[in-house]
Amino acid sequence: MSNAFRARRLPVILTIVAAMMLAIVPLPGWAEPFRPDWVAITLIYWCLHMPRYFGVGSAWLVGIVLDVAQGTLLGQHALALSLIAFLTVKFHLQLRVFPLSQMAATVLALLAVYRFVLFWINGVAGVGAPLVAYWGPVLTGTLLWPVADFILRTIPRRRRPSG
User: Per the count of CB atoms within 10 A, which of 75, 87, 123, 141 is most buried?
Assistant: First the structure.
């Protein structure tokens, strides 16, 4: 692997690890249902801005690690993250030109798809949870999207030389 290849992947890996740490850090009982989907938000950002280096396969691996870290059904986050990665990579050229308000609405839709897949899998498996545990993170993730977008934009990434 070349140094340029590693330099492009390093910020992605570090932010995904940070998002996973935020996903498993303990919260008070009242705040737990509103924990944002940090991994999904970070995944959407990187699929949007670096679709050649981060896509469905990477999302699947991240999802498997998230399933193991959270102790959930093996493969449920992997499937849901792969689906939103596919949608983001497929439409990344159209999504990148959206203003922040439309991008937040798109993130709302993507997070709703993510949570619906988790809701469906848990329903099939017989795992019950209150509805706020599924849809609270969609709202908080959408509200935090502008902040996450601003923070992730400030991370320096090595670009290909022009010319």
Answer: 141
